[in-house]
Design brief:
7-stranded mixed sheet; 14 strands; single chain
């Protein structure tokens, strides 16, 4: 089903497909503004200063790997649905008996050849310790979501199914993945009783200096008989979330980015604030919201541990019970039913 105005007329390409083969955000999305140019130089100067900064990680933010792996094994043996936060936008999810891995940024640098921002905490579970993956879901091609070094170490490339947005299939096949499915927004792929649907979000794509927006970006709905989960990938806030909620909602769980939002003039068309993430959850008709895309790597200039405080405060103000607004520790696993409150 297509949201209103997504297609101009029967037989035409969708509105987000441009004549030159690139893609654009849904109608009504925030645009990059001239104010962004004024903030660019100070932003990059500040990020350069931050690159050498020692980040003080609060107690409890990371589960020791031995404990994380033991808890993960317990959840696997239980047979129920669960999620494990590996850091940033990377989750291990079991839904309807299918094991899903999202956006596996699991090694040190969010950039090519040992360049780019460096993680200040390790992934919750090492690549080598991950269980067999049935479905690999990639939201877009930025380095903090599509990690070539992690992909190279990932076992089972010949068996798992990989679902990617349009024009990313070749990238994955070139790296040894056999079963690759490209999806446009609103297209679906079913495997093992779980349907993965690519959905529009507010972002952009680039892997080098010459390929801006030549591959699509997406969020994903994962739907089994017993659970409906939204994985937001990477997104700013826009009216498209109300459209998704009306067309595909309600969702049981929504994994939403809450970090990398300052300065707003630069980031509003790419990343949501914690308050906007909560509004996304309401728009999506999500019963439970989970904060992600924070506490792993310095990408922007807000304090690295500010997002969860703002997220929990905004969720409370929006009427979410504490039990339904999750801030997880990196490496933590939680069942998707029956979890107690953060309070």
């Amino acid at each position: 089903m297509q949201p209103r105005d997504e297609r101009k007329a029967a037989g035409d390409k969708p509105w987000h497909h441009l004549p030159d083969g690139t893609f654009r955000n849904p109608k009504g999305s925030p645009a990059r503004s001239l104010a962004r140019l004024k903030t660019a130089a100070p932003f990059f100067l500040e990020m350069l200063k931050m690159s050498g900064r020692n980040v003080v990680v609060p107690d409890g933010h990371v589960v020791p790997r031995v404990e994380a792996l033991r808890a993960l094994e317990t959840h696997i043996e239980s047979g129920g649905d669960f999620i494990t936060w590996l850091g940033h936008a990377s989750f291990l999810i079991r839904i309807g008996g299918v094991t899903v891995l999202t956006d596996p940024y699991l090694t040190t640098y969010a950039g090519p050849a040992g360049l780019g921002p460096r993680r200040f905490v390790k992934s919750g579970v090492s690549v080598s310790a991950l269980p067999p993956i049935d479905l690999l879901v990639i939201s877009h091609n930025h380095y903090d979501h599509l990690d070539e070094r992690a992909l190279a170490r990932l076992a089972g490339k010949e068996h798992m199914t990989v679902v990617v947005p349009l024009n990313l299939g070749g990238f994955m096949r070139d790296r040894g993945f056999h079963n690759v499915v490209e999806l446009d927004w609103h297209e679906s792929h079913e495997m093992g009783g779980v349907t993965a649907t690519a959905l529009p979000v507010v972002h952009w794509s680039r892997r080098s200096g010459f390929d801006t927006n030549r591959t699509l970006w997406a969020g994903f709905a994962l739907k089994s008989e017993g659970h409906h989960l939204f994985f937001g990938g990477d997104s700013g806030y826009g009216p498209v979330f109300s459209e998704i909620g009306e067309t595909y909602g309600p969702f049981d769980t929504a994994l939403l980015g809450i970090g990398a939002y300052e300065p707003r003039a630069m980031m509003k068309a790419s990343h949501a604030t914690p308050e906007e993430a909560v509004q996304m959850g309401r728009d999506l008709k999500a019963q439970r919201i989970v904060g992600m895309h924070w506490g792993t790597v310095l990408l922007t200039v807000e304090p690295p541990f500010e997002p969860p405080e703002r997220f929990i405060k905004a969720a409370d103000a929006a009427g979410y019970a504490a039990v339904d607004a999750w801030i997880m520790a990196i490496g933590e696993s939680r069942p998707l039913t029956g979890w107690p409150s953060n309070a």
